[in-house]
Amino acid sequence: MKWILRYFFRTIRLILGPILLLSEKVSTPAGIERPEEAQKQIDERTKHMALYQFKTCPFCIRVRKIIHKLNLKIEHLDAQHNMTCRNELLECGGKIKVPCLKITDPDGSIQWLYESDTIIQYLNDQFSPE
Predict the structure, then answer these.
(1) CATH number of the domain residue 86 falls in
(2) Are the C-beta atoms of residues 102 and 110 closer than 8 Å to each other?
(3) Cα separations in angstroms, 49 against 6, 45, 62, 68, 123
């Protein structure tokens, strides 16, 4: 019975995955424009951030759309297929849950943000021009 459920959900992911990715491509908003100097400052601040994600996770897609909308250069790490990233997420972040935003502060301290709403709120608070 367990293997039937596993293959059922795997089949659902195979069908819905491409649909979710196409939907992301079509509905991703254009990135905001900033003066070159302001964009360089933001790029410097986001240089030490990484998003742990699964490619077809709907919550990860929401976060990636905001990252694109705010024109942020945040590294995307595949915690689904890359075992190194997956292990780092578990060992350092404490759990394998995506999306997860890793923020390395200038003093070297690391902050792990889970939950798409929390990540989106943080990014909007830090980088939104409004």
Answers:
(1) 3.40.30.10
(2) yes
(3) 34, 8, 17, 14, 11
Q: The pTM is what?
A: 0.88
Peptide bond into 99 cis (omega under 30): yes
Cβ of 23: how many Cβ atoms within 10 Å?
A: 13
What is the domain count for the chain?
1
| Element containing residue 102 per DSSP (H, E) | strand 100-104
Q: What is the pLDDT along the chain (130 residues), one digit of tens a residue?
A: 788 988 898 898 889 989 998 999 998 888 999 999 999 999 999 999 999 999 999 999 999 999 999 999 999 999 999 999 999 999 998 999 999 999 999 898 999 999 999 999 999 999 988 7
Phi, psi of 45 (to 5 degrees): -70, -35
Establish if 15 belongs to a structural domain. Answer: no
